[in-house]
Specification:
The complex is a heterodimer of chains A (about 425) and B (about 140). Chain A is of the alpha/beta class. Chain A is about 30% helix and about 25% strand. Chain A has two domains: about 1-325, Rossmann fold (3-Layer(aba) Sandwich); about 330-430, GMP Synthetase, Chain A, domain 3. In chain A, strand 3 (about 130-135), helix 6 (about 140-155) and strand 4 form a beta-alpha-beta unit. The chains are: A alpha/beta (about 425), B alpha+beta (about 140).
């Protein structure tokens, strides 16, 4: 049996969880109806009122919110309480379009940090651990979320923020960090740096909590092997709160969603229709007890599957798979859907590192598709013929996976910018 | 009798080669032979240094990807067909040459290097301003 931050909630019966959800949802709809005119208008357009929502079975009647709504309502349009009740904002990285700003009351922050505390305890964290938080601090939710969770568990917290690898390694070795929290690509980079400096015997890490970007099972195994740790996934998004919306337990078979705060649905991304448990589709969240930024039926664009099976850790919360792609990360190249995660899978299978960059452009009305890959010591040879042969094999493997031809470009080690926050995997230069 | 050769992965980027030779120069490493095999996107620099262990460690310290391989150096008669006779011999014996390049000699205290450049006029001007002149065919004994 694992350890829990709030055992009575995390191991509650499914009936109990549903009953909490029913009660909180009905209350939340009234809260939103009374305080968020933007969403109230959406409900009125669909001809529904709070009276139509009597339980979670009525959830499907509610209108969706999308990232476009957040942009349109920026900055205060979706605020659910007076600004004087808010104590914090966090913001998304804003790589496309307008930034999204999310507001928190003190109670919202408490709940978010509790979710992160659950995640840390699910990987075996206790007040005897030294927790190195190497997610960015600031507007990005990664640092503040895990920092708060680590405090709640009572770990000695190292608020490193991201970057400054030398300092990360110094604190990691000198203070004996046992849990590392950062993006998976930064974890892989730290692992490389540890090996380069011969520090492998001086680290005491035993677990990592890695999230905020897509990573594959292969990458998980690589990091685990390289650092001698167990690597766990964590999921979240600023719009809903931040990291800790769901988290992996020792079973490492998907992430438990904190269902006492968030109701998850899977929908068909084209029709919006709710799909039965076990179907692959777009993940939608409804926040049932947030005060300041109470999003209802928010479309995450993440494609995944929900399943509720008995888990060996004892938790009863429904589990989501690692997102298999994002509908907005998805590239359409020469008419074919390409997910960056597919490319990562092929690279790792072929012995390359998971550090890569996709460059898409349009020349003479045809899409060009280039994958930049770093050369590794294991694959390098003095014989150019062997390298080109290997490159050809990679092109074939990519074609087998994606169905289209990519141009592979081998580049110098560490020449692809690494992730102090999120790695830039896709450069789309097309002007369409 | 094997000689240590170091090969270095080169990304096709202006200045990459200069960085590597600069690094070796800083560490007082002398190059005895050098060759580059390249595709449009990357290349393999092969070199023989006077101190291959030191060269290996300074190259690795700067994050280069390298390999060390044994190669054989043969003194071929410096006369017409000198190389051709050796190659014919190898071919007859089903030995194929993976790659081959020349080693600097120390005759006249000079090592002869062959360049092919994109901007020939500018190249000649640069040589002249550094007090160098291109070696003529005549000086090399060529017709």
């Amino acid at each position: 049996m694992g350890k829990y931050y709030q055992p009575e909630i995390e191991t509650a019966s499914v009936e109990q969880i549903k009953s909490w959800q029913n009660e909180k949802l009905v209350k939340q709809i009234k809260h939103v109806w009374d305080n968020v005119p933007y969403y109230r208008n959406k409900m009125e357009e669909k001809g529904i009122t709070p009276d139509d929502i009597k339980s979670i079975d009525d959830l499907h009647k509610l209108p969706f919110l999308t990232k476009d709504d957040l942009r349109e309502a920026y900055p205060y349009g979706l605020l659910g309480t007076d600004l004087k009740n808010c104590v914090r904002i966090q913001s998304t990285s804003g790589t496309t379009g307008k930034r999204v700003v999310a507001f928190y009351t003190q109670e919202d922050v408490e709940i978010w940090e509790e979710c992160c505390a659950r995640a840390i305890m699910a990987v075996g964290g206790t007040n005897e651990d030294v927790c190195q938080v190497a997610y960015g601090y600031g507007l990005f939710t990664g640092g503040p979320g895990l920092n708060g969770g680590s405090h709640k568990v009572g770990c000695l917290t190292l608020p490193m923020s991201s970057g400054n690898t030398e300092r990360q390694l110094q604190f990691m070795t000198d203070l004996g960090a046992t849990i590392l929290c950062c993006t998976p690509s930064y974890a892989a980079y730290l692992a490389e740096s540890i090996h380069e400096r011969g520090l492998r015997d001086q680290i005491k890490l035993r677990a990592g909590i890695f999230g905020a970007e897509a990573w594959s099972e292969n990458m998980r195994r690589d990091i685990e092997k390289s650092l001698g740790i167990k690597a766990y996934d964590i999921y979240g998004l600023t719009e809903i709160s931040g990291p800790g919306v769901s988290f992996e337990c020792e079973a490492q078979t998907g992430m438990h969603i904190n269902e006492d705060h968030f109701i998850a649905e899977i929908i068909d991304p084209d029709t919006g229709e709710v799909l039965p448990e076990g179907s692959k589709g777009e993940l939608v969240f409804t926040c049932i007890d947030k005060e300041a930024f109470p999003l209802l039926r928010y479309r995450t664009r993440d494609i995944c599957v929900l399943t509720r099976n008995k888990c060996s850790c004892g938790r009863t919360f429904i589990k989501m798979t690692k997102p298999m792609g994002r509908s907005d990360d998805m590239l359409i190249i020469r008419g074919v859907n390409v997910f960056p995660s597919q490319i990562e899978t092929v690279l790792l299978q072929q012995g390359y590192q998971a550090n890569y960059q996709i460059v898409v452009d349009r020349v003479n009305n045809t899409d060009t598709f280039e994958v930049l890959v770093e050369m590794t010591p294991d694959l390098f040879s003095d014989n150019l013929g062997k390298i080109t042969e290997m490159e050809k094999e990679l092109v074939l493997a990519l074609k087998a996976m994606l169905g289209i031809q990519a141009k592979v470009k081998l580049v110098a080690p560490k020449s692809i910018a690494r992730s102090e926050g999120k790695a830039v995997r896709v450069i789309d230069k097309r002007k369409i | 009798m094997a000689v240590n050769q170091i090969s270095v992965f080169l990304e096709n980027r202006t200045g990459q080669l200069a960085e590597i030779t600069g690094l070796l120069a800083e560490n007082k490493i002398n190059l005895r032979a050098i060759s580059i095999a390249e595709t449009a996107d990357y290349g393999v620099l092969r070199l023989i240094a006077d101190d291959s262990e030191k060269a290996t460690s300074v190259l690795l310290s700067q994050g280069n990807i390298i390999n060390m391989n044994p190669v054989t150096v043969v003194a071929v008669p410096d006369k017409p067909a000198g190389l051709s006779e050796l190659l014919a011999l190898l071919a007859d014996s089903d030995v194929s040459v993976e790659y081959m390049y020349s080693l600097f000699t120390h005759q006249n205290d000079k090592a002869y290097m062959v360049f092919r450049v994109t901007d020939y006029d500018n190249f000649i001007q640069l040589l002249t301003s550094h007090g160098l002149t291109p070696v003529s065919s005549a000086e090399l004994g060529l017709k």
